[in-house]
Amino acid sequence: DADVTQTPRNRITKTGKRIMLECSQTKGHDRMYWYRQDPGLGLRLIYYSFDVKDINKGEISDGYSVSRQAQAKFSLSLESAIPNQTALYFCATSDQAGGIYEQYFGPGTRLTVT
Amino acid sequence: AQSVTQPDIHITVSEGASLELRCNYSYGATPYLFWYVQSPGQGLQLLLKYFSGDTLVQGIKGFEAEFKRSQSSFNLRKPSVHWSDAAEYFCAVGAYSGGGADGLTFGKGTHLIIQP
Question: Chain B closest CA to A5's CA: distance in Å?
């Protein structure tokens, strides 16, 4: 089983709808992240969390909210989806073991807002 | 704020030829640097990472990267590419606050095409 899972893998929704993307991990890491990927722009950080009580905005948090329900779960919500939120969304986890950390990415959720 | 520049949007290399992908970063302190690869329709896989020590870092799949502080560069190299190396490659720099890892800043990526 994958260490970082994302559901759904693909979603098409309409403008104005509320949508939630979910991320679960079995790695036991305390840090979790949400990124979006747009063609030609690379990945950009939306939100990150160090634990269930610590949520931080990233570079592009406007229009998004998150919830850290447990150490293993980190959800991203679009309260009122708009077409320019069409993108590939990645969840990632990290654990600062040994003073060097790396991020482990989920398979991604492809979101289309029509 | 930190930033990463990957000057080459696309690179085409013949199978068996050598490869170098360029990455320049801007960061006020000692950087954590990473190279990730994304195959079509897939997530991101870590190729290698650098924090300190030996400036030549070995990674998976035969890749290596060299950190050059004076040039603010972290270029990725492979002596002989295989058709399976065709993918999107991302360079990233890690940012840190007193609480830990603030997330990665990615370059826009380099799309590698392998010619037979």
Answer: 11
